[in-house]
Amino acid sequence: MALLRVLEILFFFYFASHIPITLFIDLQALLPEHVYPQPLKDLLSWYAEDFKDPMVLDPPVWFKSFIFCEGLLQLAFFPIAAYAFLKGGCKWIRTPAIIYSTHVATTLVPILAHILFYQFPLEPHPGPQTLQERWMLVSIYAPYLLVPVMLLLTMLFSSSYNHTPKTKKK
């Protein structure tokens, strides 16, 4: 039970931190530039330059579709999930958490493959060129695969969340 509570707290921080990340960073790829104050635009530019992530400044259409799903579907789920995992033991979160974790893990596979195997141009926004730069960028995105997979496994295999009611024998 102690391990489960540690995981629930990890899931709480994951979902609670994802709210500002989505609103202030990720959605910059979709919303008009005038929506964001200059310091947030500068933060995104700094990140893209330092970590060689051109996808956030000039996202391919497929990447925009993932951000659209994040803003439309996942953002509404983040505070609900944060509440459920902070409170702990909320069995009602199981099915939505399975749907969320499966969706997000599935989107991270093409993102990570793109980072590792795509030949990024040097202009207008340089992407990772060396193996070290690619693995650095993978390390930024990897928690968004690992935590949802941990969440999925917890929801599927934890007896606290995967309770099957006993049937009466006649």
Give a structural overview.
- The protein has six helices and no strands.
- The chain is mainly α and 170 residues long.
- Helix 1 packs across helix 6 and helix 4 packs antiparallel against helix 6.
- The protein is elongated and about 70 Å long.
Biggest β-sheet: count, sense, barrel? none
> What is the subunit arrangement here?
single chain
Shape: elongated
Radius of gyration: 18 Å
Number of helices: 6
Helix percentage: 55-70%
Topology:
Blueprint: H1 2-24, H2 38-50, H3 61-87, H4 94-117, H5 131-141, H6 143-157
Summarize this structure as a short list of keywords or feature phrases.
170 residues, mainly alpha, elongated
Give a brief outline of the structure.
The chain has 170 residues and is mostly helical. The protein contains six helices and no strands.
